[in-house]
């Protein structure tokens, strides 16, 4: 460990924060081309039924949830780390197969439907496997970069900013590149995917070269990580468990909203072109929110800012449900909701490193990999369900494609895009408000306790027992 500076006050350079943000920018360039356009490629170029695409998505996401856990086991099993650190080598090397598979998913073929489906499923699962190695290492690296809670909030904001710009660039840039290949749409998809994946790869390498692991800590010799220990890492760590539950709600709400808004603009507002403007303004509001996160956290603390973001999100959705019947009001209230999501999504990542330190304080064993991948497991399950459920929901409200919808279906669409996400946001707020106890004061105490424990080389169990009454979480 670096003892030259107090770990709670050490400041990171702007250059290093920017490099860390480039990591999520690059990973989102490779991820979002699949999230946004792969289903359309399956249906339009491979001739696969849309239902098959939904099943592929569900299967692959559940598979990826478990590969995340395996990544955690691998990270916590590392004993011999060189100058590159514990996490950075995975960012460097795993990004290459991620870029290759992301591009390969957009290669057209003339095989049978069964073979096309099998190939698509295997490629999507391979992408998930390598993406887990790259992205989980990227996220789990934060506690090794800094112990300063303010700097962690800054890194989370830069990360969310990079992710938002990556999503925005994929939204506005992919199809224009694809459409350049008139008469050869399959080639257009492949070239666009290659371009975005290559840019994403170089961004990951930029992140690798620009960040530094200052606090590399390995698990003790007798500690043997395993998938079950990743689950235990969640249930034996109350702040992490609460964060997982809240995050499952917020991620599902966000994904359902994104999936339904195309139907809402087309059938309720009768303006499908509004979607592109919606994307531009909503991403702009998210970026503004991300820029405000560090200052807001410094003034109010992470938990209050998180709850404030959820309140803005819920309020925007409620206003939209009752009064968002025109394009102008829909965009206005949606911007309010998306502005709130910026604080929530940024702090989701900033709170995880704090739970790593809590787990070390409570058990005496530091397991960044298990904690982080246990957390991402809940995110992947949420994403799998949120990617599959809108289709079932649309069926339940009587949606029929490309016809004028009944009043019952229109009401159902309004409920799906506003009331469901709003309800989930309120559940997340209640969960965090009543059960998340790891505030700034307790966190500072825990870091001081861990540091003192290591200096004195004391047994973790003894120290925890002596101080358990002082901090109850």
TrEMBL record:
<keyword id="KW-1003">Cell membrane</keyword>
<feature type="transmembrane region" description="Helical">
    <location>
        <begin position="118"/>
        <end position="140"/>
    </location>
</feature>
<feature type="transmembrane region" description="Helical">
    <location>
        <begin position="51"/>
        <end position="75"/>
    </location>
</feature>
<feature type="transmembrane region" description="Helical">
    <location>
        <begin position="18"/>
        <end position="39"/>
    </location>
</feature>
<dbReference type="InterPro" id="IPR001927">
    <property type="entry name" value="Na/Gal_symport"/>
</dbReference>
<feature type="transmembrane region" description="Helical">
    <location>
        <begin position="240"/>
        <end position="260"/>
    </location>
</feature>
<feature type="transmembrane region" description="Helical">
    <location>
        <begin position="161"/>
        <end position="181"/>
    </location>
</feature>
<feature type="transmembrane region" description="Helical">
    <location>
        <begin position="187"/>
        <end position="208"/>
    </location>
</feature>
<feature type="transmembrane region" description="Helical">
    <location>
        <begin position="412"/>
        <end position="436"/>
    </location>
</feature>
<dbReference type="InterPro" id="IPR039672">
    <property type="entry name" value="MFS_2"/>
</dbReference>
<dbReference type="Pfam" id="PF13347">
    <property type="entry name" value="MFS_2"/>
</dbReference>
<comment type="similarity">
    <text>Belongs to the sodium:galactoside symporter (TC 2.A.2) family.</text>
</comment>
<dbReference type="InterPro" id="IPR036259">
    <property type="entry name" value="MFS_trans_sf"/>
</dbReference>
<keyword id="KW-1133">Transmembrane helix</keyword>
<dbReference type="InterPro" id="IPR018043">
    <property type="entry name" value="Na/Gal_symport_CS"/>
</dbReference>
<feature type="transmembrane region" description="Helical">
    <location>
        <begin position="87"/>
        <end position="106"/>
    </location>
</feature>
<feature type="transmembrane region" description="Helical">
    <location>
        <begin position="329"/>
        <end position="352"/>
    </location>
</feature>
<feature type="transmembrane region" description="Helical">
    <location>
        <begin position="272"/>
        <end position="293"/>
    </location>
</feature>
<feature type="transmembrane region" description="Helical">
    <location>
        <begin position="381"/>
        <end position="400"/>
    </location>
</feature>
<keyword id="KW-0812">Transmembrane</keyword>
<keyword id="KW-0472">Membrane</keyword>
<protein>
    <submittedName>
        <fullName>MFS transporter</fullName>
    </submittedName>
</protein>
């Amino acid at each position: 460990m670096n003892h030259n500076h107090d770990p709670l006050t050490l400041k990171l350079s702007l250059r290093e924060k920017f490099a860390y943000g480039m990591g999520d920018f690059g990973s989102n360039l490779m991820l979002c081309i699949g999230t946004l356009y792969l289903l359309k490629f399956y249906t339009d170029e491979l001739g696969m039924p849309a239902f098959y695409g939904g099943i592929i998505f569900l299967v692959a996401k559940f598979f990826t949830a478990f590969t995340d856990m395996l990544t955690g086991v691998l990270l916590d099993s590392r004993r011999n780390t060189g100058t590159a650190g514990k996490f950075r080598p995975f960012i460097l090397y795993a990004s290459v197969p991620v870029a290759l598979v992301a591009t390969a998913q957009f290669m057209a073929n003339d095989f049978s439907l069964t073979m096309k489906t099998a190939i698509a499923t295997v490629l999507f699962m391979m992408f998930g496997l390598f993406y887990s190695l790259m992205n989980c290492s990227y996220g789990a690296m934060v506690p090794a970069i800094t112990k300063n809670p303010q700097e962690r909030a800054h890194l989370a904001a830069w990360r969310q900013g990079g992710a938002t710009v990556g999503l925005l660039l994929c939204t506005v840039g992919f199809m224009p590149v694809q459409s350049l290949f008139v008469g050869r749409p399959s080639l257009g998809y492949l070239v666009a995917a290659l371009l975005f994946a290559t840019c994403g790869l170089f961004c990951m390498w930029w992140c690798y070269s620009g960040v530094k692991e200052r606090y590399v800590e390995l698990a003790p010799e007798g500690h043997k990580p395993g998938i079950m220990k990743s689950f235990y890492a969640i249930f034996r760590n109350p702040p992490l468990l609460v964060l997982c539950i809240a995050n499952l709600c917020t991620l599902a709400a966000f994904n359902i909203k994104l999936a339904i808004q195309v139907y809402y603009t087309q059938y309720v507002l009768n303006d499908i072109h509004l979607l592109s403007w919606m994307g531009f303004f909503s991403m702009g509001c998210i970026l503004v929110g991300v820029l405000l996160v560090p200052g807001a956290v410094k003034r109010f603390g992470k938990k209050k800012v998180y709850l404030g973001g959820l309140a803005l999100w819920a309020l925007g959705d409620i206003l939209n449900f009752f009064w968002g019947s025109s394009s102008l009001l829909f965009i206005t209230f949606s911007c309010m909701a998306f502005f709130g999501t910026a604080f929530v999504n940024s702090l989701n990542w900033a709170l995880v490193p704090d739970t790593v330190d809590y787990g070390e304080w409570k058990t005496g064993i530091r397991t960044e990999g298990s904690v982080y991948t246990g957390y991402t497991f809940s995110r992947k399950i949420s994403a799998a369900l949120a990617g599959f459920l809108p289709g079932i929901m649309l069926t339940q409200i009587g949606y029929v494609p490309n016809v004028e919808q009944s009043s019952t279906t229109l009401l159902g669409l309004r409920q799906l895009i506003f009331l469901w996400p709003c309800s989930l946001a309120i559940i997340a707020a209640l969960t965090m408000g009543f059960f998340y106890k790891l505030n700034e004061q307790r966190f500072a105490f825990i870091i001081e306790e861990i540091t003192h424990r290591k200096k004195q080389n004391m047994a973790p169990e003894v120290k925890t027992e002596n101080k358990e009454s002082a901090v109850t979480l």
